[in-house]
Amino acid sequence: MEEQPIRITSKENPWIKRAVRLKEKKYRDREQSFWIEGERASGELLKHLASVRVFFVQEDHWAIWKERIPCAYWKKTYLIPEKLASHISATETFSGIGAIAWMPHWRNEEIFPKRGTLLYLDHVQDPGNIGTMIRTAHAFALDGILLSPECGDPFNPKVVRSAMGMLLNFPVLTQITDEDLKKASDQYGYQIIGATLKNGSIIHYCHHYTEPQIIVIGSEAFGISDKIDEICHNYVKIPISFNSESLNAAVACGIILSEINRQQNEKF
Amino acid sequence: MEEQPIRITSKENPWIKRAVRLKEKKYRDREQSFWIEGERASGELLKHLASVRVFFVQEDHWAIWKERIPCAYWKKTYLIPEKLASHISATETFSGIGAIAWMPHWRNEEIFPKRGTLLYLDHVQDPGNIGTMIRTAHAFALDGILLSPECGDPFNPKVVRSAMGMLLNFPVLTQITDEDLKKASDQYGYQIIGATLKNGSIIHYCHHYTEPQIIVIGSEAFGISDKIDEICHNYVKIPISFNSESLNAAVACGIILSEINRQQNEKF
To answer: How distant is the alpha carbon of residue A72 from its chain centre?
Structure first.
């Protein structure tokens, strides 16, 4: 008879309790793990099996996932009834699969010496925006994304969802201060470029982007903070209609990264 | 003695009941009104006072809003205690002001003859994405945004929030079918340009954008639908890293609209 994953039915099961608790930052930090759910993000996890702690598959979805999860991982897979699925889900509708993954660890010394393009988020709080910017930075093949100490937690379930699982293999460094940026700039020659509508900023596509460079995106409500503003070498802005206040931070970020990409490709 | 807005304390007050019910589409359609909240969106409403049905100001925020709401509108303003504020809010934390506004009405015949740039959303459901694209289309001074019948409701509170109140003065046409697009194209010469990664699509910044044109963004999960795909004249794609699946729809939209803007400005 074919071996099947174990079926869990109790909310008191330690893995179920862990899955629920991982919605809170203090448990994520303690366990060095985070919660992933949804087809695309979990599909991404299948490419990084070393990160898997456990999979949870809603039992009526097992026929699909049994083809995708390698059988060596079935012992790390639990089947759960629909009721338990809604209990552990961070969304309104659980889409059949969730997982607990180990947090990846990246060291500053792995990222800064690459001298390519990095993105720095200064006081960005909105989890949807943080996740979308991780996804965008990954899509444009940046070397990584740096978060200021005041940013939202990148392992928040909403960030993980918007990032579409890209957190698993894309370098995200947290707690990066103005001093860290200054040091990186002095040591490796990074240009620090602030995206801001302030006077003196030049139109983003008129700027000539050259690596190594760090693109700074400020908070939606307050823009770039004074400390970071002080260490920027250049400022770029996206020209918008006079009666429009601003763009969404993740959209602005995408526009600038796409322009860098265009300039790099036009060289050839 | 200075006149003050009326204070409401009961959940049974008809305006409070209306504010709560407007979270549902059928009431919005019946009342031809929608719910707005937050400082920025409500600030936008102050520029379009004819759209105001009522303002709700949390009483401890009145000192601020009394300077901004013209006193002729105080009779349309209600002061509410914190408890009632959380009752009517569509968010976790009410930021002091909310309002009921009349839905703007736009007719196809006002928009299509402009022969500029329009954005068409095909089966886009995510309210955050729809709102962000409205805000972006407004920022790049498009003539309007067209929604397919399967799109999410533009007056959903989450759309209104992401659009930052831009719904009040920016043309949004709903229930636009493939036949409407075809007709607009035949009658006014619109080029229909699909954003898609499919074979045969050209790199977006290599396309020469010329008005009149309609940019089509498909659903995040399924891309552009077959019916719409059939009537596209051209396809553009944003080049991304080979191991990345796609960009967020609102980010992709921003990148294309920004490129159109760049090409238009480089002409001068």
So the answer is: 28
Give the start-to-end residue ranges of the domains of chain A: 6-102, 108-266
Q: What is the number of helices (H) and of strands (E) in chain A?
A: 11, 12
Q: How far apart are CA B45 and CA B47, in angstroms?
A: 5
Correct CATH for B6-102 of 3.30.1330.30, 3.40.50.2300, 1.10.645.10, 3.10.25.10 = 3.30.1330.30
Q: Which of A162, A239, A253 sits opposite B261 (nearest CB)?
A: A239
Look up the CATH number of domain B108-266. Answer: 3.40.1280.10
Cβ contact, residue pair B246, A128, below 8 Å: no
Three-state DSSP state, A204: helix
Are the C-beta atoms of residues B28 and B34 closer than 8 Å to each other? yes
Are B134 and A248 contacting, i.e. CB atoms less than 8 angstroms apart? no
One digit per residue, pLDDT tens: chain B, 268 residues?
A: 567 899 999 999 999 999 999 999 999 999 999 999 988 888 889 999 999 999 999 999 999 999 999 999 999 999 999 999 999 998 888 889 999 999 999 999 999 999 999 999 999 999 999 999 999 999 999 999 999 999 999 999 999 999 988 899 899 999 999 999 999 999 999 999 999 988 889 999 999 999 999 999 999 889 999 999 999 999 999 999 888 878 999 999 999 999 999 999 876 5
- Cβ of B254 within 8 Å of Cβ of A247? The answer is yes
Q: Looking at this predicted complex, what is its ipTM?
A: 0.92
Q: How far is B83 from chain A (nearest CA, A)?
A: 25
**Is the Cβ pair A239, B250 closer than 8 Å?**
no
Give the separation between CA A253 and CA A236, rounded to whole angstroms: 11
Q: Which residue of B has its CA nearest to A141?
A: B241
> In Å, how far is A204's CA from the nearest CA of chain B?
10
β-bridge mates for residue B146, sequence order? B120, B173
Whether A220 contacts A242, CB under 8 Å: no
